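Probable nicotinate-nucleotide pyrophosphorylase [carboxylating], Thermodesulfatator atlanticus. Tokens?
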Amino acid sequence: MPLIPPHPLLYKALVVEALKEDLGHGDVTTNALIEEGQQGVGHLRAKEELILCGLEVARLVFRCIDESLAFVPFKRDGERVLKGEVVAELRGRVSSILKGERVALNFLQHLSGVATLTNKFVEAVKGFPVKIVDTRKTLPGFRVLEKYAVVCGGGSNHRFGLSDGVLIKDNHIKACGSIKEALARARARLPHVYKIEIEVKDLKELKEALAAGADAVLLDNMDLETLKEAVKLARKIKKDVILEASGGVRLENVRDIAASGVDLISIGRLTHSAPAVDLHLKIVALLP
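Tokens:
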């Protein structure tokens, strides 16, 4: 199934703000050195192996600078790109290419970094019937793009925001008084279409959640042995309950977590700690 990028309306304001931040009152260096009519060709190139994400965002950056610029992608979002490969070509005013260069690269390097890290986790659990999913731990304003980057890396999306699904966490439980009471209120007050997920931290809370009819359970920060016991217990009590493991997930232990039998592994670091990958933009030719 082809990847469908988010509609530009969902992130155009972010692109515009980034350009305003970078350009300020104008690019004084480019304005002083480059003739306005000078035409050229620029190549966006990978400097390391990566999973690509953000081409349409980069296209929008340059379109906001100069609608006459031609942006020609050579790769697709979600594609593995090798070191040295060109991912896109730009043709048009050299001054326009230079004015959009840094902002376009910032988006591409960050989003491709999220996709690349996600793909490492996905590859690490290959062979197990488990999904790697993201969280709401995203940079403010970047959520729709970062969650798209997770999908480009082969991962799946958890809820996009608080309005997308029910996830009862420890502070909700504390405010309600108990797991049973929290689930009872959710059942009584929410439409029937919602599945209800609740967070538990030990086997006692897991039993209480299952007895109260939770549709899904987030097994939070459990050590591996407790996690295995929790999965066995849950499958015995309610075979079709959705089980999500979260907390302390690293590349070094994610395969062991997948082997426990959970359905989902949610990882905050996919978005909040993904290192940027290395791409650059070089003017490769000047045109008459």
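The two ends are 42 Å apart (CA to CA).
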